[in-house]
Design goal:
The complex is a heterodimer of chains A (119) and B (96). Chain A has 119 residues and is mostly helical. Chain A has four helices and no strands.
């Protein structure tokens, strides 16, 4: 029973990392790509680690799996935040829909200029 | 440290390794192609986490629990590398 559940978790985690890879290729913008890579990749790693702790019982795998998950979930948002901030400061363009949405683009331009002035 | 009591079928682990390898190819394509530097940095961040996933899957297929230490080290080092790259490339005039 546990082996079936763990197999499902392993395949699901691998599929989530594949979703992260596909998002890396298909997304139109640096910020969208960073979003896809960070969230889906971290979730896939977490699922595979849960499967590993289920299959190999014992204190060592439990502690080390918890350590990896804790560290990864703690640092992945920080890394994504740093990448997005550096992208904004380097004035990498935001992706816009091809329609005339002046309101949205105005507010995003304002935020970008504010962040650039502050630094 | 070697453990023999794995109940996961071998096919599942090999299939997961192939899927993660596909994701690694996609991420490497973005490193190769990326229009800006920050795209490459984000893709390298994803690539490091995928290498970590491969090492965790290697625990299943080989039986050595010691590969978890490698995964921990890669998690720490990849975070430091990403933060260092981002801090360095914040200034617009930075080359690379």
């Amino acid at each position: 029973m546990i082996s079936i559940l763990a197999s499902c978790l392993i395949i699901l985690g691998a599929l989530f990392t594949l979703v992260a890879g596909i998002g890396m290729v298909r997304m139109p913008d640096l910020y969208c790509r960073m979003h896809a890579a960070t969230k889906a990749g971290a979730f896939g790693v977490g699922l595979i680690l849960i499967a590993m702790v289920m299959i190999i019982p014992g204190p060592r795998t439990l502690i080390q799996g918890l350590l990896i998950v804790l560290f990864f979930y703690l640092t992945a948002p920080i890394a994504a935040h740093m990448i997005g901030r550096a992208g904004l400061l380097r004035k990498i363009e935001l992706w816009r829909v091809q329609a005339e949405e002046t309101e949205v683009t105005d507010s995003s331009n304002q935020a970008q200029s504010q962040l650039t002035e502050r630094s | 440290m070697y453990s023999e009591s794995f109940e996961v079928p071998h096919l599942v682990v090999v299939l997961a390794q192939i899927i993660v390898c596909l994701a690694m190819f996609l991420s490497a394509w973005r490193v190769w192609k990326g229009p800006t530097v920050m795209d490459r940095v984000a893709a390298l961040d994803l690539f490091a986490s995928l290498i970590m996933t491969q090492f965790i899957l290697l625990v299943f297929s080989s039986g050595f629990i010691s590969y978890l230490d490698v995964a921990t080290a890669i998690a720490i080092v990849s975070f430091l590398a990403t933060v260092a790259f981002a801090r360095y490339l914040e200034r617009e005039e930075a080359e690379l």
